[in-house]
Automatic annotation (TrEMBL):
It catalyses: a (3R)-hydroxyacyl-[ACP] + NADP(+) = a 3-oxoacyl-[ACP] + NADPH + H(+). Signal peptide: none annotated. It holds the Pfam family adh_short_C2. SUPFAM superfamilies: NAD(P)-binding Rossmann-fold domains (SSF51735). Its EC number is 1.1.1.100. This is 3-oxoacyl-[acyl-carrier-protein] reductase. It is an enzyme of class 1 (oxidoreductase). One of its GO terms (molecular function) is 3-oxoacyl-[acyl-carrier-protein] reductase (NADPH) activity. It comes from Tenggerimyces flavus. Keywords: Fatty acid biosynthesis, Fatty acid metabolism, Lipid biosynthesis, Lipid metabolism, NADP, Oxidoreductase. Residues 3-171 form the Ketoreductase domain.
């Protein structure tokens, strides 16, 4: 029987590819989204992870329709890129609230059901920026680095109940955003990646699905890079 899976920010990019990967494996998959239309074939739940009431309602809806969440992929995130001296308090707060506090909210709520089940998988979608840093992304890097400390603390707290918490750190991913970068800039990025190419959302999704599988049942508190070697040594 399939598991009940929730992917936050699951209506595009890595989130959508991940949701589809779990669905293809036979799981029942719900995705949260803030705007637009939910993906076809998945349980779409409109939810802003910065709103505690919406998070609670989303979990209630999912529990009613596909049972308690057994696998959580905390993927919802935003950017507000600018240099440190130009970064406003709002730029900082919005990114931390969505990326880090939002991940905390959904992990805490999912853990309640997982504790009752005495099993569960939590996967945080961080970024290579969280380990390497990136000029113009102080807020984003801080939010993604925070996921690592959070996951490792959760791993220690909940491991005795067969609940794992891990982090994946994708590097540059092929998206519409990278496609429109100037050729010279793309070349500069590619030269810094040992494998010489960007990854795909599908490649990231497969790693997330694997770390949430029975094959990875003895892995917890891990940081798994999906960056073509870009972040080696961190």
């Amino acid at each position: 029987m399939g598991r009940s899976v929730l992917v936050t920010g699951g209506n595009r990019g890595i989130g959508l590819a991940t949701a589809k990967a779990f669905a293809e494996a036979g799981d029942d998959v719900a995705v949260t989204y803030r705007s637009g239309d939910p993906p076809e074939g998945l349980l779409g739940v409109q939810c802003d992870v910065t709103n505690p009431e919406q998070v609670e309602q989303a979990f209630k809806d999912i529990e009613e329709k596909q049972g308690p969440v057994e696998v959580l992929v905390a993927n919802a995130g935003i950017t507000r890129d600018t240099l440190l001296l130009r970064m406003s308090e709002e730029d900082w707060a919005d990114v931390i609230e969505t990326n880090l506090t939002g991940a905390f909210r959904v992990a805490k709520r999912a853990a309640k059901g997982m504790l009752r089940l005495r099993r569960g998988r939590i996967v945080f979608v961080s970024s290579v920026v969280g380990t390497m840093g990136s000029a113009g992304q102080v807020n984003y890097a801080a939010s993604k680095a925070g996921m690592i400390g959070m996951a490792r603390s959760i791993a220690r707290e909940l491991g005795s109940r067969s609940i794992t918490a891990n982090v994946v750190t994708p590097g540059f991913v092929e998206t519409r955003l990278t496609d429109v970068l100037p050729e010279a800039q793309q070349k500069q990025y590619l030269e810094s990646i040992p494998l010489g190419r960007f990854t795909t959302t599908e490649e990231v999704a497969k790693v997330i699905r694997w770390v949430a599988s029975d094959e990875a049942s003895y892995i917890t508190g891990a940081v798994i890079p999906i960056d073509g070697g870009l972040g080696m040594g961190y």
